[in-house]
Write a structure and sequence with these properties.
Layout lengths: L11 H19 L8 H11 L4 E3 L5 E3 L3 H6 L10 H8 L3 H13 L29 H12 L1 H8 L5 H7 L14 H11 L2 H12 L7
Helix pairs in contact: 1-2, 2-5, 5-6, 6-7, 6-8
Length: about 220
């Protein structure tokens, strides 16, 4: 069930159940690498059910968030008390989940100013100042695909295509190869495999030209 389709006022029992789920996720994030097995599944459930937007803590405090980044950084029990970087790192290479995170981030109007594990936040947690950071390279790539090449995004999230290959196919990233500069023969072999005859001819002509400082 998408968080966009959630009822306006879930029952208090459901709101308290959401807080239990959020507490489990917070504990998994606290455990770092040892929480790797539990974090992705819990995070997916929190996102898909929209639990982060509205819940009742064990202290009987009703909390609402309209900013997913604020939910991540707000101290427990009203948030995860973590960082976006940590969440993405523990998700790893699950591109489908990273895309889900990014879509919820994109809905947020801004970023909070409070730091993780900092002071408490009362009532509705929302901040409409600041801009969204670029995030990880993979997250930035997913954003580009969603905006400019949505037809390739489904292939990435299904695991049929890497983010890098999708960006290259969409013309959003230059194709690059690594060459061993200390071995000209190996460099030539690599370039022959990756360049067309016309490209090789153009490269030879460019290499034959004197360097700017020699002209």
């Amino acid at each position: 069930m998408s968080s966009l389709d959630l009822p306006q006022d879930p029952a208090p029992q459901q709101l308290r159940a959401r807080a239990v789920l959020i507490n489990l996720l917070s504990t998994g994030l606290d455990n770092g690498a040892s929480g790797l097995s539990s974090v992705p599944g819990l995070l997916r459930q929190v996102l898909e059910e929209g639990s982060w937007q509205h819940f009742i803590t064990m202290r009987d405090e009703e909390v609402r968030h309209d900013n997913f980044h604020a939910f991540i950084t707000t101290p427990p029990l009203k948030g995860l008390g973590a960082s976006e970087e940590l969440v993405r790192r523990l998700v790893g290479r699950d591109t489908d989940l990273l895309d889900l995170i990014d879509r919820h981030m994109a809905r947020a109007p801004g970023r909070p100013t409070a730091s993780p594990r900092g002071g408490d936040t009362e009532g509705t947690v929302s901040n409409r100042h600041g801009s969204r950071p670029a995030g990880t390279t993979q997250a930035a790539g997913l954003r580009k695909l969603r905006k400019h090449a949505p037809h390739l995004l489904s292939q990435v999230t299904s695991g049929d295509l890497s983010v890098n290959k999708a960006l290259i196919e969409a013309g959003l990233r230059e194709r690059t190869v690594s060459v061993p500069v200390s071995r000209p023969d190996k460099t030539a072999d690599v370039l022959r495999r990756h360049l067309s005859p016309d490209q090789l001819s153009a490269l030879v002509a460019l290499l034959a030209r004197p360097c700017p400082e020699e002209e």
